Batch of 4 targets.
Target 1
Amino acid sequence: MSEIICDNLQIIGRRIREAEQRYQRSENSVKLLAVSKTKPLEDIEEAMACGQVAFGENYAQEMAEKAQQESVKAAEWHYIGPMQSNKTKWVAEYATWVHSVDRLKIAKRLHEQRTVDQSPLQVCLQVNISKESSKSGLLPDQVLPLMEEMSTLEHLCIRGLMAIPAVTKDFQAQRMAFAQVRELYESLNAQGFALDTLSMGMTNDMEAAIAEGATMVRIGTAIFGARLAI
């Protein structure tokens, strides 16, 4: 077995712990989600052998196919990609988490397709915090109304927010975008929602995200290498 993925996981783990210390976050308050989209099963098996449990997938059918393999049955699957109505059944059946809900229609389908013997699907609402036309997600003022509409869907458990801000190498600009997500999260909690998850930060901006309260960072390239074309 190659040791590259194990080495990369250790490096990312150190970056997370160092950022927690630097920004006065509690130790182990930030969870690592290894983004395994387009990666072969062998890479996931190697990551699991090194202690990684949570994996993020962008393509519902690919996630479903991987989740059915015996060698990775113990993995925790997070669906993090844009959601199409005709793909929700795979997500409802095989995911533990979904980070990209941004429409009531999708939320209702996930609720209806989650079987009664499964625990509730853990949900983050995706926020288009930089208001980019090329990205999915709710505008900030659309989040509260959708949360209220979803509150009766008992097969879903709303945990928090996910965001992918506009790409920039400027650390302070990264922090400002993530701060807007955190402020929205805090406002929602002040209005009675018991949110505990901020899914934000990737390979090139995870420190800024941790500085602004991220509880889960989504790392792919720095663990598995460049994305494969599909």
Note: The first strand starts at residue 31 and ends at 35.
Target 2
Amino acid sequence: MLISVTGATGFVGRHVAATLVARGHRVRVLARDPARARFLSDLNVEIVAGALADRPALDRLASGADALIHLVGIIVEQGAQTFTAVHVAGTQALLAAAGQADVRRFVHMSAVGARDEPGATPYHRTKRQAEQLVRDSGLSHAIFRPSIINGPESAPIRLLARLHRWSPLVPVFGDGRFPTQPVWIDDVAMAFALAAERPDTVGVFELGGPQVLTYEEFLLTIGRASRHSRPLVHVPLGLVRAAAGVFDVLGATAPLTSDQVQMLVEGSATPANAIESVFGIEPVAFEDGLKRFL
């Protein structure tokens, strides 16, 4: 199969591209900055220069493809890169190119908690709006909602590991009881590959690891895996939200935003976890994955 991928230079995308190549597929990727995609050359991946707003580039990406995997997403807005522009308009443009090129299969990256309702963060609302575009496209599709993804390129996990190494204390927001269900990156990549190969697997699928952990347990596990466990200190949630509100004005450079705090507190467990029941993948435990790179 020829499988085209957006977001292949990102954390998840590079693993998806490598998994597809290992499974014998030809892979074509979209890259805003082809220089950032040089590492993919070793995989013999075809690179199309362009962005989601570049329709000729999207047409080249989709031309002749059997499946299209859409991974592009942002967690903080910056300039013209707004949630609506990237998640909604970008998905709409890609679906139009896929339809024009008669692409048979569309696999889409969403997020746990995606919903278009009052009180949801703009990130979650636009993710849900993009999901609806995929549903309404008429294409055979799979939509994935992964929990926190664990892997060597995970910036949040790397940051927390550094805190355990260099800080005398590691902060826990509020009571630290909000649920997480971290999932190993290669398990996620395999699910995307299998979904691209199986046009009869249609719907929305949550992806999580084998264990539900509280956020406090999540932090303690990172400390153990890094071999530099530090004591945890609980910080009142009101204080955390106040600090995040101040940081919001910094935009993309903010160390923490109000929306990120809200999403963390809402939790990211996946009670309808499909990674094993639908895709037959035996998920790697959080601590086992951490030990592979920390």
Note: The longest helix spans residues 83-100.
Target 3
Amino acid sequence: MIDLRRASERGRPLIMGILNVTPDSFSDGGRWDSPRLAVEHAFEMADAGADLIDIGAESTRPSASPVSAEEETSRLAPVLEDLAPSLDIPVSVDTMKAEVARKAIGLGAEMVNDVNGLRGEGMMELCAETGVAAVIMHMEGTPGTTHSSEMGDGYMESIRGFLRERTESALEAGIRRDRIVLDPGIGFGKTHAQNAVILRSATFFSDGLPVLIAPSRKRFLAEAFPGTDREQATFQAVKEAVLWGADMVRVHDVAGTAAALGFSRRL
């Protein structure tokens, strides 16, 4: 089971390794869309220090085309079938669709990472029914409009209010409090300047729950850390996020992140 205690209790944050089994993700689309290569990469990330692997089969990059539940499941299933029984760390599924999440949970996924904040039909009920951990993320707008949306004044309170409302709804639906993680949604309907503030604000959003910060290779890094390539900027961003209270970080380069944080072994 995923240890979702706050980083202050565990002694360090968790590293969530990103595994995109998509042809069109913004950073590594197509690189791991072979099940064999995807499974191999998951084991590489585990060996490098990942505490859990987050598998996604639908890109959420700007201008990405949505895919059907059937297509998303067809990408996920072969990887999960091989990976979940043999990997010694938990697997998370990055999806907005309850139908896809149910299949993934049946194949061994222990967490649902939902960029839509458990707002899709049946998703909250599924997480309550199965007892999996759930990441509730803030997205400004909808999946189709978020990358053309920008938040205005009061965005920090607005994000926190959304996360509080979704948490209360999750608890009322039967999701246990110790199974909830909050994500303020860097890159989803925020300006570069807003993303830079959110990066350093995990404790502001927490309300006693663990907070996931996901800055990996995102566009705002060029402004937040000028003169640094996106990978090195990601490592700097992760260190900043942890300094300001992040309990979990979601990254592409697990080995580099572990080194940046000063450790290389899982709990």
Note: The chain has a mean pLDDT of 91.
Target 4
Amino acid sequence: MNINATLLGQTIMFILFVWFCMKFVWPPIMQALSERKKQIADGLAAGERGKHELELASKRATENLREAKQRASEIIAQAEKRASQVIEEAKGTAKDESNRILVGAKAEVEQEVFRAKEALRQQVADLAIAGATKILQREVDAQTHADLLLSIRAEL
């Protein structure tokens, strides 16, 4: 066997093998690598988009929380203001009611005082008539008359 013929045969076989690999094996491998590269790039891009969207969502959540806190403080302030208004209205109503009750009580006291005065006048008139009747029933005597006036005075 000749080394040159073997070397020439191996070279031809190697060239055929390289041609076969470049024609039939290399394109599917390159296509698979290209698809894998594209898939990895898409995955990284989606990860970046997700990261960006997460940051945006976090900012929106923070903004919404701040707005909710602000709105809650406004609602609390309005509630406190309304509570003070209700308290002031209740105080005004209570004051009006107390004034009305006081006026009614004063009128009732005045009426009772008037009734008491009238009753006292009636009693004084009755006593005066009773005294006059006693004086007129007896004879007109100065001493008796003075004693009677003293007894009437004692009754009053």
Note: The mean pLDDT is 87.
